[in-house]
Amino acid sequence: MIHDMTNKGFTLLEVMIAVALIAIALTTLLGSQSQSVSFANSAKFETMA
Fold this sequence. Notes:
By secondary structure, this protein is mostly helical. It has one helix spanning 12-48. Helices cover 76% and strands 0% of the residues.
């Protein structure tokens, strides 16, 4: 089988890899956001005491 290399578009594998990378990045960002909120709350309670 000869593949036509002029085909413009993404393969399913490329899309799946991109989705996986975005999911990993979002998970990391949400984790650090959650940790930042936790640190901010604990700093607020310490300044109130």
